[in-house]
């Protein structure tokens, strides 16, 4: 696949956490770029800084230093509200533990960000139904998360992340809590949407699934130690 | 509609709808009790006095009362005044009274020494029994014996507060009569004339003007006090339903009655101490209500805080996927409004459909009044507005505290 625009550019990214007098440096100066249409797997051993790196890229957290330029905009200059709007309109998230809102049905979970974008309830629900059908949950619109299996919940989470057609889909260990069959279903889904041009950045510790990505970035001790294309 | 309100309402509706019915019921119950505390405590306190004021109006002054001018012994030109009153289109009925101070004596036959005679001072009233009963329902206060008939002669009704068995108080300067029963003879001295009369009935009421008085038929009383000119001391006027006491008072003054008598509405004639106590009790009620309001605020604060803190992770997720903090805060404000409005609605129902009619039918028996529950609709609505406003603030603050936390800290449960 031929990549086009540069979506994310990271320069000298560091992230430290303070615990009393002790300061832990989790990310130690990362330079990194993401181009449109890429499917990137970020791998590494536990504590390597994979998730922390993903949180910085996806604007869920503030880096200690360095620059993150997304779609040509330096995110450091953005206000919290601007970042919220940016996440709403441009980014999609799949969390490790599904992160569905327990009071909302599958269709409501998926429709919520669409409604927040200003779409009418009817349009939001229609698009939510389309997204849920796309992940094979056309029969589960009105089920609450507690009534769905882990795999189904993760697929609702994927549907929610994709429904508003984000530029980049971030996934943090999307198969960590799933059995093999459900994991395969979710990864097949990722492959399918990537094939349709979706940019995906996924953190995983499972080598089998990282091989499905077209680019594998390995972190260790807060640094990128390898960046290979499959 | 702003986006944050739309999403806030969407989230609040689903959260309330899918919350535990028991938790929701408990919160609503607390809000209903808070509302009742706000309205009923002050309502009963004011009602204590309002009951006395109402009784004073219904059983003594009626809607309009005409009495003698300060330096006059009676209402001059009373027949003329009475004919003006009788011609009033708004007047339903009226009662004229003759008043004179005097003493009443008991057990004078058995007394060897004149100092052993029991004496009580009181106000003696000559009434037309029929007109008085139509105007003030005096006969309903008979607790022993019978009410007066127009032809009764040498017969009296004695106010219960002049009798020891009803008012067992011993104090210097205030004496009551012991062992007085229906049919007993007592001696009255009015205007220097002494007569022996029979006790026909005993009047017991929480209106002092009734309970400290001795009543007899006006025709005899007139001759007793030598009032052959038919000049009376008081005229109570009961108006037709819907008629304004103020309008009638002003009309009477304009027609010249004011030259011979003092014309007052029942409100004008209210003793000042009652007005002062009413204001004091209202203040006291508001102070107690304020404490109730503070308790309600703290309750809602705790409920919303616990709700928000246990949902902190989901709040973080919502912010993560792009739902604005304002929309999330608004959802908690809507939940607070829901609790306050539903609680207040239940409170309103209990107040106006159950409590107020029940207390009106079964007044609270206080020593000086039959207490009612005063809860005017405008005051109640103001309290609801106050409760809702307080609840909104109490719901917003904890929601804001949680929503403002770092997204990742919320999602990952970090402090």
How are the SSEs placed, and which strands pair?
The complex is a heterodimer of chains A (230) and B (415).
Chain A: E1 6-19, E2 22-35, E3 39-43, H1 50-57, E4 65-70, E5 73-74, H2 80-90, E6 91-94, H3 106-116, H4 121-134, H5 150-163, E7 168-172, H6 180-195, E8 199-203, H7 207-210, E9 215-220, E10 223-229
Parallel strand pairs in A: 3-8, 3-9, 6-7, 7-8
Antiparallel strand pairs in A: 1-2, 1-4, 4-5, 9-10
Helix pairs in contact in A: 3-4, 3-5, 4-5, 5-6
Chain B: H1 3-17, H2 21-61, E1 64-68, H3 78-87, E2 91-106, E3 118-127, H4 129-136, E4 142-145, E5 155-159, E6 185-190, E7 193-203, H5 208-211, E8 213-217, H6 218-225, E9 234-239, H7 245-254, E10 261-265, H8 272-310, H9 312-320, H10 325-361, E11 364-365, E12 370-371, H11 377-403, H12 407-412
Parallel strand pairs in B: 3-8, 5-7
Antiparallel strand pairs in B: 1-9, 1-10, 2-3, 2-6, 2-9, 4-7, 5-8, 6-7, 11-12
Task: Please provide a brief summary of the model.
The complex is a heterodimer of chains A (230) and B (415). Chain A is of the alpha/beta class and 230 residues long.
């Amino acid at each position: 696949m031929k990549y086009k625009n540069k979506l994310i550019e990271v320069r000298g990214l560091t992230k430290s956490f303070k615990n009393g007098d002790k300061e832990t440096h989790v990310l130690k100066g990362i330079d990194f770029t993401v181009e449109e249409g890429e499917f990137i797997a970020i791998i590494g051993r536990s504590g390597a800084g994979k998730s922390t790196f993903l949180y910085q890229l996806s604007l869920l957290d503030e880096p200690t230093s360095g620059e993150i330029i997304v779609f040509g905009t330096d995110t450091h200059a953005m206000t919290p509200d601007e970042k919220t709007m940016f996440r709403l309109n441009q980014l999609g998230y799949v969390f490790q533990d599904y992160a569905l809102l327990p009071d909302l049905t599958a269709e409501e979970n998926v429709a919520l960000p669409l409604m927040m974008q200003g779409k009418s309830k009817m349009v939001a629900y229609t698009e939510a139904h389309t997204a849920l059908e796309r992940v094979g949950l056309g029969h589960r619109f009105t089920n609450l998360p507690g009534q769905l299996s882990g795999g189904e919940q993760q697929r609702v989470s994927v549907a929610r992340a994709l429904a508003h057609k984000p530029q980049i889909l971030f996934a943090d260990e999307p198969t960590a809590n799933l059995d093999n069959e459900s994991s395969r279903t979710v990864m097949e889904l990722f492959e399918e949407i990537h094939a349709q041009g979706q940019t995906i950045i996924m953190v995983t510790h499972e080598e089998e699934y990282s091989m499905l990505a077209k680019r594998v970035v390995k972190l260790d001790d807060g640094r990128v130690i390898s960046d290979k294309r499959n | 509609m702003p986006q944050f309100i739309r999403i806030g309402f969407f989230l609040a509706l689903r959260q309330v709808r899918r919350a535990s019915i028991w938790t929701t019921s408990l919160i609503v119950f607390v809000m209903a009790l808070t509302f009742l505390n706000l309205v009923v405590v002050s309502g009963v306190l004011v009602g204590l006095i309002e009951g006395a004021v109402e009784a004073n109006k219904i059983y003594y002054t009626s809607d309009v009362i005409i009495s003698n001018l300060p330096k006059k012994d009676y209402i001059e030109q009373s027949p003329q005044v009475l004919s003006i009153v009788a011609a009033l289109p708004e007047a339903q009925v009226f009662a004229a009274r003759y008043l004179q101070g005097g003493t009443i004596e008991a057990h004078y036959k058995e007394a060897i020494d004149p100092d052993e005679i029991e004496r009580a001072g009181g106000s003696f009233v000559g009434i037309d029994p029929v007109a008085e009963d139509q105007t003030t329902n005096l006969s309903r206060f008979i607790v022993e014996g019978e009410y007066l008939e127009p032809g009764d002669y040498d017969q009296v009704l004695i106010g219960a507060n002049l009798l020891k068995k009803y008012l067992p108080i011993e104090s210097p300067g205030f004496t009551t009569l012991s062992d007085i029963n229906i049919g007993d003879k007592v001696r009255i001295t009015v205007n220097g004339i002494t007569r022996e009369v029979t006790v026909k009935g005993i009047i017991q009421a929480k209106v002092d003007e009734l309970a400290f008085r001795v009543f007899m038929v006006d025709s005899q009383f007139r001759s007793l006090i030598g009032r052959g000119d038919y000049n009376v001391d008081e005229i109570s006027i009961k108006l037709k339903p819907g008629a304004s006491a103020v309008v009638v008072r002003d009309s009477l003054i304009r027609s010249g009655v004011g030259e011979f008598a003092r014309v007052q509405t029942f409100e004008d004639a209210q003793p000042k101490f009652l007005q002062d106590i009413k204001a004091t009790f209202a203040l006291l009620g508001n102070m107690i209500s304020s404490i109730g309001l503070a308790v309600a605020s703290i309750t809602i604060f705790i409920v919303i805080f616990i709700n928000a803190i246990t949902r902190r992770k989901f709040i973080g997720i919502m912010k993560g996927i792009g739902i604005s903090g304002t929309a999330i805060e608004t959802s908690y404000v809507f939940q607070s409004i829901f609790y306050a409005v539903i609680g207040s609605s239940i409170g309103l129902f209990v107040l106006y459909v159950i409590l107020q009619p029940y207390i009106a039918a079964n007044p609270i028996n206080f020593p000086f009044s039959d207490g009612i529950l005063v809860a005017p609709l405008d005051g109640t609505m103001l309290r609801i507005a106050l409760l809702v406003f307080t609840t909104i603030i109490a719901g917003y603050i904890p929601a804001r505290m949680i929503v403002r936390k770092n997204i990742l800290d919320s999602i990952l449960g970090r402090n």
